[in-house]
Design brief:
The complex is a heterotrimer of chains A (470), B (317) and C (270). Chain A has 470 residues and is of the alpha+beta class. Helix content of chain A is 31%, strand content 23%. Chain A starts with 8 loop residues before the first strand and ends with a strand. Chain C has 2 domains: 101 residues, Immunoglobulin-like, CATH 2.60.40; 155 residues, C8orf32 fold. The chains are: A alpha+beta (470), B mainly alpha (317), C alpha+beta (270).
């Protein structure tokens, strides 16, 4: 029987960060809780935060379940995470600069050339191009899990366009509205500076050709996209335009926005669409979402695209294994955050191990995301395991495997009252002139008892995440 | 402001006004159908109404014979009919969802609630609902949306685009409604001035929520001239052609003040307003009411195109 | 050899278009085998945008045009001095790692037939250069030159099955075969002066380059059974024909597009 680290209770003692939550928890009768829960849901719906799950159809106005029980970090716990996350974000950007430049890490034999250069996310079109300040990934989302008081593991890196930050902000907003006394009793570091930090980060990477206050725009695939709410939310908080591909055009080496006063130059595009849709002249010719000619402007220094096209090669699950090596290679430091031990099914001996131990492993697709196409061995039936075995054997290169981690739990409001549920954490690291991290992140919680899958697409919920001030 | 955002706002205005007109048209049809008309029966009136709303063909394909209940369903709840009340409300709300951050939460609430409520109505059995209940609901929602706009929206360019949408749609709809009365509803020219003619006018005025105002303003018998004056030239009437055009011009001027630039759309609107202010009922009837109205419908269309080209298309330099 | 180039591309539209954007890779490569004497690229009535040299060493320039447009005319005029380097791309500055050219694309996907062709061709042969020659020979033999049977989107596998094709198909097939046996390969677009025999020839041309350890990139033209020499002018490269296209453009509007290209190459008096 695996034991799981409970972030609130340790040997029947309440851990320090949660000290002031115990009374709150005990003093919450079921009726009040239900009332508050309904109030929270009404608020979310009113604001319009909803989430459509990819490929599931159904109600596009579905809400992600919000759990009111906060997840809490002590200041010293957070400091260490913060250093680790910033270190990782620096290493990932150094890696991107390198593999689109001289490729020293490959030449040094630290990472196989094939993994990098034959990777689908490696963009030949940007080889040799140095984006402003050498930054490729401006918003790095690092997914972390905890297995003990001091054990954190990085589950994966998200260097392209990590989503979910609007939940971090709204969860806090709603908690403050509903339980103001909690914020008086606990000294909680604020997260609401995120939008301003993001705006400053983006402004700091404006192209050298921009000689005034840079104009920033968020590029969305459109209002049918499941994350459209987040796009418009961030645009509104930053006070920048939310544009679709058709709102932009290219002329004279710059990108322009179609406005009611005529064309307005855009200097920085925070894109929330995939590389392959950015520019039909350069990538998918059938893309209706992008801007024809955008990549030429980008490459000739007329506009900054964040994250940079090609950044995805750093967050590939096969490259993930090498991130600790990147930290050592580029920064000359020891990694502060550990990777989860990972077996590459592409390697015959590791594949053999994986196939022999499927019932105890988690197997993921190299390019998959959102909790799709994965096998959680201990939670699967024999038949499911055998079916997955066939898939792995069919295309081993496409899979990696990891041990089933004993994810920590935090108290969560459930049907019967309060019970421990497994959680993970995604903080959002901003990389510009400075590297910034707001104290907090998105805690995702697996609401089903015993479940280790926290993805919102698989029935996970979210929590407010607190970092206590010193 | 992004041209697309302006376009979304413009269309919110147009769709809400259009939903309202559609509801008013339904009311006209239902009222006229109650009257035993000389040898025509309500069937032809309903047909005329479908024709007037530009939905006759779609209806015929889907339902065949014009039965009142079917017509009501088609003009109110049918999502396949792009002009139905539900389609207009859906599109207004969808346009609002896209530009959520450009409108106030009060306006969003008003539009969103309207859409949520009509989907509730859609699920109810049609036999439980009287048509007047539905049309009154539309008027109420429309008033609430207008109220949210007037009470909460920043007086910026977005506000002007919304109102230009409303005003142009209303101008167009008023012109069409009057035209419909004469050239579609009235079976023949000989009936001008007849009891049927008068009854139809009353219904039309009522549908435009203007029959009492009309009587206050003019008194005496209802005549075509009085009505034409009221609905075309009387600035006191909120739906009059001149009122709508002056509103459109006022908001276009608001835009040119904000942008420090006045263009073809303003020039055209000013010419149009000047033209209608100069004219009188005698001239209108000399030209022919139908000819006059159609000239204006075309002018309003041209003005819409100019607004589109100057601001909404994103092609302007 | 000194070659005069005149290359005019006309896109015509049957309805007026609102605007157009062009991304042009129409500039002779800089390497020891060719030297530009003069060269001009112009999109008639267009606005010049940014230009840059990409990781593969190609110069790319973008242009935009405001509508209403009935046609887009791209004019290339120039004179280049060429030297025969037996296909070797000597002195070409580029940063793109050869390994990046091992990736398959839709057009260069090696099916069973291509894999067999490749494996048979290099059996018993060691040395990258020898392998590359063998592959180019095998492709030339398997696909006969015949215009009009294939089109812009024909894949290497389809062309091989057909047994006929044009230079694009030869290049794709060679690239697919080379990558299959672990040799980085890429598509090259350019011009070929073939007028010496008095026959009319298609002067816009394409071939393949294979990366040979120790030698670098080497050109192979299976369509003509040779390596590029001083009759060739190299413009740019890519993973396949689409990726290496000298002209990429898009016009906004509802009109249907028709294309008219004239390329003339002439040897200038020395």
């Amino acid at each position: 029987m695996t034991t799981y680290f409970n972030e609130m209770f340790e040997n029947d003692q309440v851990r320090a960060p949660y000290a002031r939550l115990e009374d709150w928890m005990r003093a919450m009768p079921a009726e009040l809780r239900q009332m508050k829960q309904a109030e929270a849901e009404a608020l979310f719906r009113r604001i319009g935060i909803t989430f459509a799950v990819y490929g599931e159809g159904g109600d596009p106005d579905r809400l992600i379940p919000f759990d009111m029980f906060p997840r809490v970090f002590a200041q010293n716990e957070w400091r260490r995470l913060e250093r680790g996350i910033k270190q990782r974000a620096r290493a990932l950007n150094a890696f991107l600069t390198d593999v689109y430049g001289r490729g020293e890490i490959v030449r040094a034999g630290k990472i196989p050339a094939k993994l990098v250069y034959q990777n689908e996310a490696y963009e030949r079109a940007v080889v040799g191009f140095q984006p402003p300040r050498g930054i490729y990934s401006h918003i790095v989302g690092i997914d972390l899990v905890r297995t003990g008081p001091d054990q954190f593991y990085v589950l994966e890196d998200n260097c392209r366009t990590p989503s979910g930050v609007s939940y971090m902000l709204e969860n806090r907003e709603i908690m403050m509205r509903m339980f103001p006394q909690l914020f008086r009793e606990n000294r909680i570091e604020p997260v609401d500076g995120y939008a301003e930090l993001l705006r400053r980060t983006l402004a700091s990477v404006a192209p050298a050709k921009c000689d005034r206050d840079p104009t920033i725009a968020i590029l969305t695939p459109g209002h049918f996209n499941s994350a459209y709410y987040e796009h418009s939310f961030l645009a509104d908080l930053m006070g920048v335009e939310l544009v679709e591909g058709a709102d932009l055009f290219v002329e004279g080496g710059f990108v322009w926005m179609r406005t009611t006063r005529g064309p307005q130059k855009v200097d920085v595009i925070y894109r929330r669409i995939d590389d392959s849709f950015l520019d039909p002249l350069c990538f998918r010719p059938d893309s209706m979402l992008g801007v024809p000619g955008l990549m030429d402007v980008y490459r000739s220094g007329g506009v900054t695209i964040a994250s940079a096209p090609g950044a995805g090669v750093a967050d590939d699950k096969a490259i993930y294994t090498f991130v600790p090596e990147m930290v050592r290679f580029y920064l000359g430091e020891e990694p502060i955050l550990e990777n989860v031990p990972t077996w590459q099914c592409a390697k015959p001996d590791e594949l053999k191990y994986v196939l022999e131990h499927l019932p105890e492993l988690v197997v993921k697709e190299v390019h998959g995301s959102g909790g799709y196409g994965m096998l959680v061995g201990p939670k699967s039936t024999k038949a499911q395991i055998e079916a997955f075995r066939a898939k792995i054997e069919d295309d081993p290169d496409n899979y990696i495997a990891q041990p089933t981690l004993a994810l920590s739990t935090t108290p969560t409001f459930v049907e019967e009252g309060i019970a421990p549920r497994h959680v993970d954490l995604r903080p959002y690291c901003l990389v510009g002139e400075q590297i910034e991290l707001v104290p907090g992140g998105l805690t995702r919680v697996a609401l089903t008892e015993g479940s280790l899958v926290v993805n919102s697409s698989q029935g996970g919920g979210v929590k407010d995440t607190w970092v206590l001030a010193e | 402001m992004l041209s697309r955002t302006a376009e979304n706002l413009f269309w919110i205005g147009r769709y809400i006004e259009r939903a309202e007109t559609m509801a008013r048209l339904l009311e006209v049809g239902a009222r006229i159908a109650l009257m035993p008309s000389a040898g025509h029966g309500y069937r032809s009136e309903w047909e005329s109404l479908l024709l007037a709303s530009g939905t006759a063909e779609g209806f015929a394909t889907k339902y065949g014979d014009p039965v009142q209940r079917n017509i009501e369903s088609y003009l109110f709840f049918d999502r396949d009919n792009p002009s139905s009340v539900i389609s207009c409300i859906y599109r207004a709300r969808e346009n609002a969802r896209i530009v959520r951050t450009a409108i106030t939460s009060q306006l969003w609430d008003a539009l969103n609630t309207t859409y949520q409520e009509i989907t509730q109505l859609e699920r109810r059995a049609r036999s439980e609902m009287e048509l007047t209940e539905l049309t009154e609901w539309v008027m109420r929602q429309s008033a609430m949306i207008r109220g949210a706009i007037e009470a909460t929206l920043l007086r910026n360019d977005g506000y002007h685009f919304l109102n230009i949408g409303f005003a142009l749609e209303r101008a167009d709809n008023t012109a069409r409604l009057i035209d419909v009365k004469y050239y579609v509803l009235l079976p023949s020219v000989e009936l001008v001035g007849s009891a049927l003619d008068n009854y139809q006018w009353q219904v039309l005025l009522r549908a435009m929520s203007a029959h009492r105002a009309f009587h206050w303003a003019y008194g005496g018998d209802i005549t075509a001239r009085k009505i034409a004056h009221f609905l075309i030239l009387n600035r006191q009437c909120p739906r009059a052609l001149i009122t709508s055009l002056e509103t459109a011009l006022a908001h276009l001027d608001g835009l040119s003040r904000e942008y420090n630039h006045s263009g073809a759309a303003q020039r055209r609107a000013r010419a149009l307003v000047g033209d209608i202010a100069e004219t009188n009922v005698e001239e209108i009837f000399e030209e022919g009411l139908h000819e006059f109205l159609n000239r204006y419908i075309a002018e309003i269309g041209a003005l819409s195109t100019l607004v589109y080209d100057s601001y909404l298309s994103g092609e302007a330099r | 050899m000194i070659l005069d180039v005149s290359h005019v591309t006309v896109y015509r539209y049957d309805a007026s278009m609102r605007s157009a954007v062009q991304s042009l890779r129409l500039f002779p490569s800089r390497f020891d085998g060719q030297r530009v004497i003069r060269w001009s690229v112009e999109v008639v009535g267009g606005m010049r945008g940014g230009s840059f040299r990409d990781g593969a060493g190609d110069k790319i320039e973008s242009w935009s045009l405001r509508g209403p447009l009935q046609e887009v005319v791209i004019r290339v005029e120039g004179q280049v001095e060429t030297v025969d380097l037996a296909g070797v791309l000597r002195g070409h500055r580029e940063l793109a790692p050869p390994e990046a050219y091992l990736r398959e694309t839709l057009a260069t996907d090696a099916d069973a037939a291509i894999r067999t062709l490749a494996e048979d061709a290099i059996e018993g042969i060691s040395g990258d250069l020898e392998k590359a020659h063998a592959l180019a020979g095998a492709v030339a033999e398997a696909i006969a030159y015949r215009p009009g049977v294939t089109h812009a989107h024909t894949t290497a596998a389809e062309a091989l099955k057909l047994g006929e094709g044009v230079c694009q198909d030869h290049a794709h097939a060679l690239i697919a075969a080379a990558r299959h046996v672990g040799l980085p390969a890429r598509y090259v677009s350019g011009y070929l002066f073939a007028g010496a025999d008095g026959e009319p020839h298609e002067a816009a041309h394409a071939w393949a380059e294979v990366f040979v350890a120790g030698l670098g990139w080497v050109g192979f033209d299976p369509a003509n059974g040779c390596c590029p020499d001083d009759r060739y002018i190299r413009l740019g490269s890519g993973l396949d024909a689409r990726d290496a296209a000298p002209i990429r453009g898009l016009a906004r509007g509802e009109g249907e597009e028709s294309l008219d290209v004239t390329v003339a190459l002439a040897a200038a008096q020395q």
